[in-house]
Amino acid sequence: MNRTIVIGAGQAGLAAGHQLTRHGLPFTILEADHRVGGSWNHRWDTMRLFTPATKDGLPGVPFPRGDRFPTGAQMAAYLAGYADRFGMDVRTGIHVDGIFRDGERYTVTAGSDRFEADNVILATGAERVPNVPSLAADLSPAIAQLHSGAYRNPSQLPPGAVLVVGAGNSGADIALDLAPTHPVVLAGRHPGHIPPRIESPVMRVGFRFLAFAWTYILTEDTRPGRASREKVLSGHSGPLIRVKPQDLDAAGVRRAPRVTGVVQGLPQTEDGDIHDVATVVWATGFRPGYEWLSLPGLDTSGGLENHRGAVVGQPGLYVLGQLFQYRFGSHNLVGVPHDAEMVVADIRRRAGRGVSVAGAARSR
Predict the structure, then answer these.
(1) Same structural domain for residues 65 and 164?
(2) How many alpha carbons fall within 13 Å on the CB side of residue 12?
(3) pLDDT at residue 242 tops 90
(4) Domain holding 137: CATH number?
(5) Measuring CA to CA, how many Å separate 37 from each of 10, 52, 59, 182?
(6) Bigger pLDDT: 283 or 204?
(7) Could you write out the three-class secondary structure of 269-316?
(8) What gap in Å lies between CA 143 and CA 247, rounded to an integer?
(9) What mean pLDDT is predicted for residues 250-274?
(10) 217 belongs to a structural domain
């Protein structure tokens, strides 16, 4: 029987594991971290999800009742329990460093370990490699620098002013976390561009309904979905969800436009201000990071071209949890289970010697 290797034990990898288990297909999940949960084990201490707990569960196991918006640590614990609940074969501490194809089969390597498979699902996260602008190299060595992916709490930073670069959700959250202990400036393309607080209960319910509806309605098969997908993949971040302008103001966080250069070792923003700071936190996002793949004909310069998760030109290779992979919510807990269904459906077709989605995409 065909065997599948799933790389990554976050929500995408476990959603795939659930579908594979459901259909009796053998699989092994490989996770580089020493714990199930992937990057959820390495978020900042005060980080909370934007979706309520009622929407954060994977198929078959509701998220435990408790805090309305779970922390990253609570999500990691939930995922570990989920893998145990279904008896998934998850091997942690396995850092995959290569995938090679021999005919219709794949060899997955992790140091001296080798795994043979008919199918490989890359569930390594929407974007996994920290993105830091090149001008970071021009900053004074006296300025401490770290990426949001490495940020845990204010005690990591030396005393003195902090410039948080990137006015998206992560940047705003980190700026608020730092404000009680450090003077903070939040710099970004649209600083403070945050939806107004919705006071009416009816409006709040309507807004939440629309927010979750977008996850299902906006797909690559619809015209609005294709337009949204183009914006998302071109780097246009969405609106800030939890933080409000008054929250930043009350905490004493100053706002500035985006950083455009370095003057005498100090960061300069678009308005010409030069910021004499002790630390810069780069909340500038991540990039896909598939360069370690070396399969013939595979373009790894960005997100892998795929049709409903099946990588075009690579039969048996799949992605899961990519940014707007098929639908607006493909990368999050609300959307990834539906994409996992499509991926495993294609694996079942391959096992039954049917035509794969990727093959159909190539023939169009």
Answers:
(1) no
(2) 29
(3) no
(4) 3.50.50.60
(5) 5, 18, 16, 31
(6) 283
(7) ECCCCECCCCEEEECCCEECCCCCCCCCCCCCCCCCCEECCEECCCCC
(8) 27
(9) 96
(10) no
